[in-house]
Amino acid sequence: MTRNILLRVSVAILFLYFAVALLAPFIAPYGATAIVGAPLQPPDSEHLLGTNNVGQDIFSQLVYGSQVTLIFGFCSALLSVSISTCAGIVLGYYGGSVDEVVCRVLDVLMPIPIFPLLIVLTTFFNPGVVQVSIVMGVLGSIHGIRLIRAPALSLAETPFIEGAKSIGASDLRIMSRHILPNLMPIVTVKFVTASQHFLVMGVGLSFIGLWDTMTVDWGSMIQNAYSGGALSLGLWWWILPPGLAVVGISLALALAGYSLEESFNPRLEVNRI
Amino acid sequence: MIELTSVSKYYSSGFLCRKRAYVVNDVSLAIRKGETLGLAGESGSGKSTLARMMIRLVEPSAGRIVFDGIDLLALKKPALRQLRPRMQIVFQDPDTSLDPRLTIGASVAEPLVVWQKAGRHERDDRVIELFGMVGLQPELADRRPFELSGGQKQRAALARAIALEPEFLVLDEPTAALDLSVQAQILSLVQVLQKRMNLTLLFISHDLQLIGRMSDSMAVLHEGRLVESGKTDAILRRPSDPYTIRLLEAARESEEWFGKDK
After folding, report:
1. Largest CB tally within 10 Å, which of A64, A73, A99, B171?
2. Domains and CATH numbers, chain A
3. ipTM of the complex model
């Protein structure tokens, strides 16, 4: 498949997920936590994906669960990319000793794995989805700062930036009107790949029950099914739908990320088969 | 108009920053109002760094620069910004001197936007006027730099540089990346603009012939040091420094070589 088709397909899939999340109250036949049928009913016309062990409609849970999962993934990514872009541009543009010190601090922070750190933090502070999303966004920005800083640094030394300085443009104007637009391809790719990363991580955190267990999202759905013995009892309709939903969006985001990266930097196409 | 006294630029390295690599070393020169100073020297001799220091795009490590009676290096950022419109620069490579994401019209209008020189309509009129002054068709205003030829881009860069009606203009090898026929057009355009706007010019080139044609006085840089300066005619006719003599000989040799080719 060519890059263009891949991109279109992945964007279409993402669009579908967003539409489901936004229109959840209209799509889902029942509430996410309402007990609406007999436990462990297989799929039929009344319950499209059957029911779970307490008689909740799995299709409705899947539809409502997309809201928390998507909001978590995209909000964390948005926060992380915003922090990395602002900090990366400021560090790259001004350089100097502050840049030097911040880079050394980042060198120290970079090897710290986010996931175990989040497990520790959530165990101690018992935060909600929003707080975890903020912490993840902040911690996830560390890699991004280095990623954005490098091209910002080389852009800051190009003649058109020197030209902007020479006409008396303010630093804010140079960073927002010249450096940022020229970095948008990298920022966009970073946002898409970060969304995928954080979305999967959010599902993982929810799976091990690190935030409010009453929240219905795909991670908690998989966890419920797993602990309820869906695998050993062969209750595929309970565990497969949320799993496939995660795989679907994760794949779509990964493909979108790769295709965008290649379209912005065609040299990559040669290296990747 | 502009006077440099013992200006140096060095980068420190080694233990306690005790090693110094000089890019420009103890250069003193002056340009009078309305005159053109040609700055010659081979690649890496510090010409561009010196030029950027003259308009304080690069901070000198030592020395004094006086621009129209104002001590440039004593100025704080806001005061320097106020002075910026009076001195402008045109860079060597037209491919990188305009923001690739902006249209040519937006690039030329940017100085006017930054200084809020006019309302939107007046600004558009001024951009068209500037396009006319540098010989660009107004239709090109909506194009992006990659859609233009090298010569057109350099004209646009020139239009942007003169938009704020500067008094001092640095031309950092403005024709080095252009082919010969376009070179001549751009240089004659510069001369016309200089007369019309009474510009003081610093013309940087490694081509002594061009310097001979464009400048009233000239200076020769070699490894960051000023080896010779004075009236252009006098230096080209009777160079006193061995390096200038070598440069002139090299220029003559290449002329002969091209002559044979013809």
Report:
1. B171
2. 3-21+58-271 (1.10.3720.10)
3. 0.89
